[in-house]
Amino acid sequence: MLTNSNFCVIxxxxxxxxxxxxxxxxxxxxxRWYQSGQIKGYQTDTGxxxxxxxxxxxxxxxxxxxxxxSSSENKSNLDSQADRLTAYCAAKGYQVAKVVKEIGSGVxxxxxxxxxxxxxxxxxxxxxEHYRNVCDSSACFRLIGAAMKSAxxxxxxxxxxxxDV
Length: 165
Description:
The chain folds into two domains: 9-56, Arc Repressor Mutant, subunit A (Orthogonal Bundle), CATH 1.10.10; 61-157, Rossmann fold, CATH 3.40.50.1390. A hairpin with a 5-residue loop joins β2 and β3 (49-56). α1 crosses α2. It is globular. The protein is built from five helices and seven strands, in the order βααβββαβαβαβ. The protein is α/β, with parallel strands linked by helices. The protein starts with 8 loop residues before the first strand and ends in an 8-residue tail after the last strand. A four-stranded parallel β-sheet has the order 5-4-6-7, sandwiched between helices. The chain has a three-stranded antiparallel β-sheet with strand order 1-3-2.
C-alpha cells in the first residue's frame, strides 16, 4: 500500500465470485488468494466473501507481462497466454507497458528476453501466468522474487498455487 498523500485511493467492494470473473481466474484461485491475504476482504454472517479492492493509482506501476511456451509448436498458446495476462492486468487496473513473448525450454537458462526483462529496472511489476514460465522450480522462482523485492520490484502470478512472492 502506498502512503504518499499524493495518491488517490479508491475502495471497491464485490463478491469473491465477481472478483474472480473480473480478474479472469478460477473461483478457487481467488479464494486461495483471499485466504492467504493476497487480496483484502471480509466474510459476511451469511458466509459471502466480499473483496475490498484498492486502486493505489496503478499508473505509478510500469507493468510487463511475460508469456513463454517451450516449443514453436505451441505458438498459438503463446498468443492466447499473452492475451490472458493482458486481460488480467486490465481487470486489476494495471496499464501494461510491455508484452514479452518467448519460445524456449523452461530448463534452458539462455532465454534472452526473460533475462532482459528481469534486468530492466524501469519495469516495477512482471506478471506471468505460472511460475514455471520463469524457471523450472518454485525455489528458483522464490529467489527471483526475493531479489526483485529487494529492488522494490515484484513479480505476480496469475495461477499462484501458493508460490506468489
